[in-house]
Write a structure and sequence with these properties.
The chain is α+β, with helices and mostly antiparallel strands. Among the domains are: 61 residues, Orthogonal Bundle (Arc Repressor Mutant, subunit A); 75 residues, Ferrous iron transport protein A (FeoA) (SH3 type barrels), CATH 2.30.30.90. The protein is 42% helix and 17% strand. Helix 1 packs across helix 4, helix 2 packs across helix 3 and helix 4 crosses helix 6. The protein is globular and about 55 Å long. The relative contact order is 0.10. The structure holds zinc ion. Zinc ion (ZN) binds next to helix 4 and helix 5. Pfam families: Fe_dep_repr_C (PF02742), Fe_dep_repress (PF01325), FeoA (PF04023). It comes from Natronosalvus rutilus. Homodimer.
């Protein structure tokens, strides 16, 4: 089955949204995620359903079928391997790799992906901390990370993943020193959601607005 880039992008988006909500994805959430108008998403969903790649129940949402899921995982595998390659070997900043990988992901062969995996030493995560599906399209077990926003003052946390969707957020996080692998203690949560963190390797503390904290995933650190 030859799919258009756009069809692959939809399958990828449905997979990502499905794993965030652990269920069917609404047309409006999908449209928002892909920055398209809901009718555009609706007609693409119909097309994907005609190909047996998704199941769509009115008022319930859309889900990948057993045929659609491996295609989504393969695109995600390509995307995340490319991000790793761009960051590790071509000196791209982590705020730049996503856009470039979005373009390249549809055009690399399985063989190219395999060589890339070897060159990179079989990486398990991309530069944002997102898991890279293996060659058999198995998804590495992601830790039980939660959003930073769900934690309380005094919690010590390890940053595991940062959403790759927004370039400005990533640039901001680079500037204040937050990336996967960094440990921090939450020192204050202001009434309107400004979260202040003491990063392990920093003397001064940093503050992130609620909107930014939403895109940071962390895991508790045992003392
Ligand atoms: Zn990405």
């Amino acid at each position: 089955m030859i799919l258009s880039d756009s069809m692959e992008d939809y399958l990828k988006a449905i997979y990502i949204l499905q794993s965030e909500t652990a269920g069917a994805v609404s047309t409006s959430d999908l449209a928002t995620y892909l920055s398209v108008k809901p009718p555009t998403a609706t007609s693409m969903i119909k097309k994907l359903a005609d190909h047996g790649l998704v199941e769509h129940e009115p008022y319930h949402g859309v889900q990948l079928t057993k045929t659609g899921e491996p295609i989504a995982l393969e695109v995600i595998r390509h995307h995340r391997l490319l991000e790793r390659y761009l960051a590790d070997h071509l000196e791209y900043d982590w705020s730049e790799v996503h856009e470039e990988a979005d373009r390249l992901e549809h055009h690399i062969s399985d063989q190219f992906a395999e060589r890339l995996t070897e060159l990179l030493g079989e990486p398990t995560t991309d530069p944002h901390g997102d898991p890279i599906p293996g060659p058999e399209l198995s998804v590495p077990d992601i830790d039980q990370s939660r959003r930073l926003i769900e934690h309380a003052v005094g919690d010590r946390v390890l940053v595991t993943r940062v959403s790759d969707q927004d370039k400005e957020t990533l640039s901001y996080l680079t500037k204040i020193g937050i990336r996967p692998g960094i440990q921090a203690t939450i020192t204050e949560i202001a009434p309107f959601g400004m979260i202040t963190l003491q990063l392990n390797n920093h003397t001064e503390s940093v503050s992130v607005p609620k909107e930014v904290a939403r895109s940071i995933r962390v895991r508790p650190v045992d003392e």
